């Protein structure tokens, strides 16, 4: 299942990058890791959570019995990102990279939703 595998690989790569280079990745999106607690949180949430979600997407993409549920979960998760990102774009002054993330999130959510409905028909 191409959407789950593609996005799974992307999430794993981003998670590993955030965990390996927390100062670089956090500052790129406007975060300041002022202390060890902040660094731990960044590595855990932006590294570990993203890598874990990516691994789950890969598993669901390769296991036919998990594909429909995996697509549903990934689509709902992705639309959650869009839902929470949109007000920030409308009310806050954010960096250009944040708009890029928003575009990727909308495209990913739409792709996963399309793939879910296509798979549900089959």
Describe this structure in words.
The chain has helices spanning 2-20, 22-28, 36-62, 67-91, 96-121. It has one domain. Helix 4 (67-91) packs antiparallel against helix 5 (96-121). It has 122 residues and is mainly α. It has 5 helices and no strands. The longest helix is centred in the middle third of the chain and has 27 residues, at 36-62.
What is the CA-CA span between the terminal residues? 13 Å
For the report, how would you describe the main beta sheet?
Answer: none
Helix content: over 70%
Rounded to the nearest angstrom, the radius of gyration is: 15 Å
Q: By helix and strand content, what is the structural category?
A: mainly alpha
Low-pLDDT runs: none
Mean pLDDT: 96
Please give the number of β-strands: 0
Strand content: under 5%
Tell me the count of domains.
1
Number of H- or I-type helical stretches: 5
What characteristic shape results from the CA principal axes? globular
Write down the secondary-structure element order.
Answer: HHHHH
């Amino acid at each position: 299942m191409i959407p789950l595998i593609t996005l799974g690989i992307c999430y794993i790569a981003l998670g590993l990058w955030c965990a390996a280079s927390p100062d670089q990745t956090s500052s790129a999106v406007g975060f300041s890791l002022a202390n060890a607690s902040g660094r731990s949180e960044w590595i855990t949430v932006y590294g570990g959570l993203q890598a874990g979600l990516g691994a789950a997407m890969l598993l669901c993409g390769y296991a036919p019995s998990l594909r429909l549920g995996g697509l549903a979960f990934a689509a709902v998760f992705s639309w959650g990102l869009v839902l929470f990102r949109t007000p920030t774009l409308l009310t806050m002054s954010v960096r250009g990279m944040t708009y890029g993330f928003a575009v990727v999130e909308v495209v990913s959510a739409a792709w996963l939703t399309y793939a879910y409905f296509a798979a549900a028909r089959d």
